[in-house]
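--- STAGE predict ---
source: upstream dedup step, 1 unique chain passed
mode: sequence only
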Amino acid sequence: MTPLDCAVIFDVDGVLLDLTAAEEDVFFGAFAEWCPPGSLSRHWNTYRIRNDDNIVDEIMQTHGIASHYKPRIVKDYFAKLQLHLKAGTVHSTPLAGAVEMLAALGGRTCLGIATANFREAARLRLMTANLWEPVAALAFGADGGGHKHEVLARAIAACDLPKSRIVYIGDNTNDVEAGLKNGVHFIGFSTSTERRESLAAAGARQLSGNHQETLRLILHSLNA
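--- STAGE serialize ---
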């Protein structure tokens, strides 16, 4: 494997970062002017499309919020997230082994993300966890909407590499679908045995419960 002849793309929540309830509160708090944030579902799979851009649209539609308020809602979310992260009232916590995994892959592969977070929110959160710089060159988020397979497709197109030289790591069944639809190597990651079983049932053939194993599977997929 020569430098940058391959790419490894990560989902963010559940793979690199642990999404906290406090971080969710900041997202839903951006709608406080129009509806009680506590009334909004925290179960991401209940939304029509599991993508923050589309979720904002769905909440606005459900609560009759005029479309011209969307830029303000999103901007307010970013501002409050940054404020809380800087103040330490909200924490973005890297999953065990994530820092070491990215360090081991750095310089050997092109690293990136394909996440249902807004790209700016992902940047702020990953910066706090010292994980942004390794993935910044190939960072794709919810911006523009779409299912996860569409977000991943945008990252793949930017790679300009054969799909056989790309690995995607995710923790949700929609990540499995994204990997399969895009024809790249997929690794299903979760520390939960039950979650790994659901990923396998959805079609994931490679599974990891810790990032030492994730790194091994990545290198195996790329014949490194």
